[in-house]
Amino acid sequence: MSHTAHIPSHRKPRRSASKLALRAGVAGGVLGTIAVAGAAGPANAEPVTETIEMPTLGSLDTGLASAVAASAEASQQEALDQSLQTQENLALQKAAKEAKKAKAEADRKAEAERAEKARAEAEAKAKAEQERKEAEERASRDRERTQLSTTSTSDSGSSGSSDSGSSTSTGSSNETQAPSGTAAAIVAFARAQVGDAYVRGGTGPNSWDCSGLVQGAYAAAGIDLPRISYDQSSMGTSVSLSNLQPGDILYWGSRSGSYHVAIYVGGGKYVGAQNSATGVVEHSLDWDTPSGAVRIL
To answer: Does residue 38 lie within any of the structural domains?
Structure first.
């Protein structure tokens, strides 16, 4: 026996009567066909055929286009959603800013109204206080007038005809003699207005100009005088400054063209509505020496 009779061969067996056929049709939508012939059996054995349907290029294009369209639509919808969200956020921010601005404006108006109310209340309180003080001053003046009138009436009854004698006395003797009768009423009224304001054209009761005060004082004694200063100084008789009596009208300027008048109250003093800075004051003759004097009584 040969030593190599049972040693198997290391070469691959050769396939006889076997073949492999593959056909595929893809262009133009043709179906691909794969034919496989069996490896075993005689060469003339009946071939076995299996048909596999492959996708066409047209169907691939349609699916891809659908997928792209769906993706584009999704992207467009997402972009639209983001745009709507952005607009909504901007609208919310704008509304918040407007609400904050409206609140600030409302707070400012409320503060202004509170300040205006406080100012009005303060003004009303100050006005009420001023009116109270003025009422107290008027009441004090009324009491003073009443007391002076009562005193002058009693003095007039006791002195009788002595008034006519005093009219010829000198100015120095009048400075120590108290006024009586009508003159006392005029002097009392004039002195009661000391401290009142000076207002051009004022005729009382709490503000005067020079001729308004003289007219008011004489009216308190029942005597009517013209309203203008030069008309007042043109009345009665002229008297020298050394022969003054209480109640005489003092004037500055010429007698028929005076620019200022006042009332002599005795003791070398006069009462007049001087100017807006001083108001109604009582001064000595040498403080502002008058030009002359007239006597109405």
So the answer is: no
